[in-house]
Design goal:
Structural class: mainly alpha
Number of domains: 3
Shape: globular
Helix content: 55-70%
Strand content: under 5%
Order of helices and strands: HHHHHHHHHHHHHEEEHHHHHH
Largest sheet: 3 strands, antiparallel
CATH class of the largest domain: Mainly Alpha
Radius of gyration: 25 Å
Oligomer: single chain
C-alpha cells in the first residue's frame, strides 16, 4: 500500500463506508481528525506516514483536552481517528472496536430484556446511561464469547477476567466499569435473576492516586472579568457568563445548557439539572449577577425562539453546543489580560470552580455546604478544596521545635 498520508486517509474512509456508518459519522472523522492530520503533514512538508508525527498529534490532543481547549468528545474522536490510520498503515485495515447498535444487537436473544430493564431503572443522566449501557454490552459480549448464556452462570473468575480485559482497553475508566457492574449485580439480586452477591465484592474500596489540582487566584479572575467591554457585543453576554461562573462555580457545560426557565428572578435562584450527574441543583443568584443576566437578555441577546440563555453572536443564533465554547470565552479574556497560562497551572475555566471551592473552605464554610453548592454527590469530591487551603493546613502543622534538642 502507498504510505502517503492522503492514500491512508482515503483507505480509512472507504473502510468506514463499508461498515455502513452514517454519513455524519464519517464526516466527523474527516473534520475532527483527518483534516488535522493533513494540516500537520502539510506544515511538515512531508506526506509519507511518520509515526513520530502521529504520536505528537495524540499528545497534543491530550494536552488540549487538559487545558479545556477541546471537549472530551473531540479528544476521543481525534484519538480514535489517529489509531485507525495507524492500523491501516500497519495492517492495511483496522478492526472496528466501538459498540454500535448493530454490534449490541448480538446480545438481544440472551441478555437484551434484562439489560434494557436494568438501564431503565437507573436514576442517572442520559449521557451516563449510555456509558453504562456500553460497558454492560461489552460485558454481555464477553460472556457470550465464553458460551455463558445467563448472568446466573457468571463466576468470580469471569468477572476478574473481564475487569482485567477492560483495564487494558480503558485503564482510566475503571471506576465507571466497576460502578456499572456493581449496579448491574445489585439489580440482578434485587430482581431474583442472580443469587451471588458480586455487587458486595465490587463495592470493596479501591486504592486511587489523587492529585490536588491548582486553582486560578481570585485576583486574576477579577482581572480577567475587568477586561470585558460591556459596551461592545458580545460583552454583556461574556460578562454574565464569567460572573455566573465566579459566583456559583457552575461547570462550563451547565452554563452552556442553561435555559431561561432555569432562572427564578423573584426568588433570586438558579434551578437546573446538572449535566454531569443529572441531579437537581438550586443555587442562590447574587443581585449583581442577576442584573448582569437581565442586562444581557434585555439589551444584547439576539431575538430567538430558542430557550437557551446564552446564544452565539452570529446567525443562526443557537445555544453553545457544549462547555468548550464557554471555556473559549474565558481563554480569550485571559489572553487579553496578558496572564500567562501553562499546562496544569489551574488557569482554566474549571479552575474558577476550584477557586470558589477553595475560597469558601478558607473562609470557614463547612465542607458539607461547599459540597452542596458545587453539586457534588459525594463529599470526597470536595476534599481537594480542603487540601488546597494552604493557610488552613498550616494551622494543622505540628511544631518542629522538639526535634534534635529544640525547646
Amino acid at each position: 500500500m502507498n504510505n502517503d498520508i492522503y492514500s491512508l486517509i482515503d483507505s480509512a474512509n472507504e473502510q468506514l463506508k463499508r461498515l455502513e456508518l452514517a454519513d455524519v459519522t464519517i464526516k466527523t472523522y474527516q473534520q475532527r481528525t483527518f483534516s488535522q492530520v493533513i494540516r500537520r503533514y502539510e506544515k511538515e512538508g512531508d506526506y509519507q506516514y511518520r509515526q513520530e508525527i502521529m504520536d505528537e498529534l495524540l499528545s497534543e490532543a491530550e494536552e488540549q483536552f487538559s487545558d479545556g481547549l477541546i471537549s472530551r468528545k473531540t479528544r476521543n474522536w481525534r484519538r480514535r481517528g489517529i489509531k485507525i490510520l495507524q492500523e491501516v498503515h500497519e495492517n492495511g485495515h483496522f478492526q472496528w472496536k466501538i459498540c454500535n447498535a448493530s454490534f449490541s444487537s448480538q446480545i438481544s436473544h440472551v441478555f437484551e430484556d434484562t439489560v434494557l430493564e436494568f438501564t431503565q431503572s437507573l436514576s442517572i443522566s442520559e449521557k451516563y446511561r449510555k456509558e453504562t449501557l456500553s460497558i454492560i454490552t461489552r460485558f454481555c459480549l464477553f460472556l457470550l464469547d465464553r458460551n455463558i448464556l445467563g448472568f446466573q452462570e457468571v463466576s468470580l473468575e469471569d468477572l476478574r477476567d473481564f475487569l482485567a480485559k477492560m483495564h487494558e482497553a480503558r485503564p482510566k475508566s475503571m471506576d465507571k466499569v466497576v460502578t456499572s457492574l456493581k449496579k448491574l449485580f445489585c439489580f440482578l439480586e434485587c430482581t431474583g435473576r442472580a443469587t451471588d452477591n458480586y455487587w458486595i465484592i465490587l463495592s470493596a474500596p479501591r486504592s486511587r492516586d489523587h492529585s490536588v489540582k491548582p486553582a486560578i487566584p481570585q485576583a486574576e479572575i477579577l482581572t480577567v472579568i475587568n477586561e470585558i467591554d460591556r459596551e461592545k457585543s458580545p460583552g454583556k453576554r461574556d460578562f454574565a457568563v464569567l460572573s455566573l461562573a465566579a459566583t456559583t462555580g457552575l461547570r462550563a457545560g451547565d452554563i452552556a445548557s442553561l435555559k431561561l426557565t432555569d432562572i427564578f428572578w423573584k426568588e433570586q435562584e438558579i434551578r437546573l439539572s446538572q449535566g454531569k450527574t443529572g441531579h437537581r441543583l438550586v443555587l442562590p443568584l447574587q443581585s449583581s449577577v442577576r442584573d448582569s443576566l437581565a442586562d444581557y437578555i434585555l439589551n444584547e441577546r439576539p431575538a430567538s425562539t430558542c430557550d437557551g440563555v446564552f446564544l452565539r453572536k452570529f446567525a443562526p443564533y443557537t445555544p453553545f453546543r457544549d462547555g468548550v465554547s464557554i471555556a473559549c470565552i474565558f481563554r480569550r479574556y485571559l489572553k487579553k489580560a496578558d496572564i500567562q497560562h501553562y499546562l496544569n497551572d489551574g488557569k482554566t475555566f474549571h479552575g474558577i470552580r476550584r477557586s470558589l471551592g477553595t475560597t469558601m473552605v478558607s473562609k470557614g464554610i463547612p465542607v458539607t455546604t461547599v459540597s452542596q453548592i458545587l453539586g457534588h454527590q459525594d463529599i470526597r469530591a470536595t476534599r481537594q478544596y480542603v487540601s488546597m487551603d494552604v493557610d488552613g493546613l498550616r494551622k494543622c502543622a505540628l511544631s518542629m521545635k522538639t526535634i534534635r534538642g529544640g525547646v
